[in-house]
Amino acid sequence: MALTKAKKAEKVEQLAKELEGSTSAIVGTFAKLTVAQDFELRKTVRAAGGRYRVLKNKLAARASKGSQIEAALQGLKGVSSVAYTKGDPVALAKALSAWVEENAQFTFKLGIVDGKVINVDEVKALATMPGKEEIFAKLLFLINSPAQRLATVINATGRDLAVVLNQGVEKQKFAS
Asked: Of 143, 123, 124, which Cα lies nearest the Cα of 135?
């Protein structure tokens, strides 16, 4: 079934709106993907906070004009799909990488993070990085750690004095 010009324009406009707000995307290709595998892939991407679409290469190139991922979607060849997110790019990369390990039919073509095009190796490296929440937790620990140590040292002086006084009382050193 051929798409009419009006339908193509509508699809381009819809994809452009979705891509405009995305901060990162991973473009891949698939061969002989079953319906069940496609369903699982879409479910995995949604769980990571992203969206997944199969692309028509020319429509994707038109839709990406003016967006952060324009450079990546120009000149795509073969069967292409894109998983994109407004949220954490690491979470999306981790979810896709885990799914790809079990399903060799899907392979990465490239990725985009904050408008910068990254290659397949960098997408795989992105998947090994800690997520935003983990980085924030580590940062908060590092910020909080010196304050906790200072409080411990300040409390230790009073505690040690109380222990010495208690030992003196027990040995009746203060009896006059």
From this structure: 143
